């Protein structure tokens, strides 16, 4: 469904992405990992049509996103941003309705009443009972569930999530991840998410794509990609990789940060 071809993007004096190729198939759940500043969030914004590439292109079902308006792109791809400023007094219902802008337009947003898509979005993430509560009165985990409902209200088949578990307690991190996995199955979604926690990526994703300095340096199933070499090359730490005794997914044991020339740097470390 999503195909990035030789994608490049940057600002004067700074290259963010350099010749990135990425294909995400229908129904996949792909995790993007890498250090801050490696281009993960920029790649998501390009795939949502919010940025225009300096070179290359992004295809969605064969259509070049550069040829679509932002509103047209929003009918096909939903992006949950890393953070969003709260609007004092805005209720959960009012926020989730914002997800219908691409379909209903500015005049449609003024109509009273929730359409069935908003009702389903709130129900799917378990926030229907909070519809009239102010968003700024919710906890961090509750707000993230509401923001996920906002993205679902766009009613697209592609869901892009930028660090959906950041700043959340472990309980809420797991709650968000499990909700995403469930919704992906129930709705038949294609999901691409930026994650800082390699453990979550290894457990929940079909594929892990690792970026370093604007380029893809690893791409494959967690069993193949999560290695001591990945920890060193991409995350800058020395560590070990084991297996979860119950779920059998890779588990990382970071030991210490690497400084200076990387002693583990070797082309064979990353598959």
Count the domains: 2
SS class: alpha/beta
C-alpha Rg (nearest Å): 19 Å
Q: What's the overall geometry? A: globular
Can you list the strand order of the major beta sheet?
Answer: 6-7-8-3-9-10
Write the layout of secondary structure elements.
Blueprint: E1 2-11, E2 14-24, E3 29-33, H1 40-47, E4 55-60, E5 63-64, H2 70-74, E6 77-80, H3 92-97, H4 101-108, H5 116-124, H6 140-152, E7 158-162, H7 170-187, E8 190-194, H8 198-204, E9 207-212, E10 215-220, H9 222-225, H10 228-235, E11 237-243, E12 250-257
Parallel strand pairs: 3-8, 3-9, 6-7, 7-8
Antiparallel strand pairs: 1-2, 1-4, 4-5, 9-10, 11-12
Helix pairs in contact: 5-6, 6-7
Provide key terms for this protein.
271 residues, single chain, Rossmann fold, cell membrane, ATP binding, disordered C terminus, six-stranded mixed β-sheet, 2 domains, 10 helices, membrane, alpha/beta, 32% helix
Written account of the structure:
It comes from Streptomyces inusitatus. Its main location: membrane. This is Iron-enterobactin transporter ATP-binding protein. This protein is of the alpha/beta class and 271 residues long. It has two domains: 2-76 and 156-263, P-loop containing nucleotide triphosphate hydrolases (Rossmann fold, 3-Layer(aba) Sandwich); 85-155, no CATH class. 32% of the residues lie in helices and 28% in strands. The strands form three sheets. The chain has a six-stranded mixed sheet with strand order 6-7-8-3-9-10, sandwiched between helices. A four-stranded antiparallel sheet has the order 2-1-4-5, with helices on one face. Strands 11-12 form a two-stranded antiparallel ribbon. β11 (237-243) and β12 (250-257) form a beta hairpin.
């Amino acid at each position: 469904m999503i195909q990035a071809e030789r994608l490049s993007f940057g600002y004067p004096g700074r290259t963010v992405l350099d010749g990135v190729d990425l294909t995400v198939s229908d129904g996949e759940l792909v995790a993007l990992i890498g250090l801050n500043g490696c281009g993960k969030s920029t790649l998501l914004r390009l795939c949502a049509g919010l940025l225009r590439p300096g070179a290359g292109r992004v295809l969605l079902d064969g259509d070049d996103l550069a040829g679509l308006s932002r509103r047209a792109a929003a009918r096909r791809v939903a992006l949950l941003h890393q953070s969003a400023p709260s609007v004092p007094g805005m209720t959960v219902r009012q926020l989730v309705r914002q997800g219908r802008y691409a379909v209903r337009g500015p005049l449609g947003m003024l109509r009273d009443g929730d359409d069935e898509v908003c009702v389903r979005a709130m129900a799917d993430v378990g926030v229907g009972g909070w519809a009239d509560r102010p968003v700024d009165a919710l906890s961090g985990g509750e707000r993230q569930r509401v923001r996920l409902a906002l993205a679902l209200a766009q009613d697209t088949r592609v869901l892009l999530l930028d660090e959906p578990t950041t700043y959340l307690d472990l309980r809420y991190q797991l709650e968000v991840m499990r909700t995403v996995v469930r919704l992906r199955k129930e709705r038949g979604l294609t999901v691409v998410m930026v994650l800082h926690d390699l453990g979550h990526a290894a457990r929940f994703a079909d594929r892990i794509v690792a970026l370093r300095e604007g380029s893809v340096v690893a791409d494959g199933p967690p069993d193949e990609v999560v290695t001591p070499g990945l920890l060193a090359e991409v995350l800058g730490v020395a560590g070990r990789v084991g297996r979860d005794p119950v779920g059998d997914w890779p588990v990382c044991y970071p030991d210490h940060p690497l400084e200076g020339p990387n002693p583990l740097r070797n082309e064979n470390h990353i598959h």
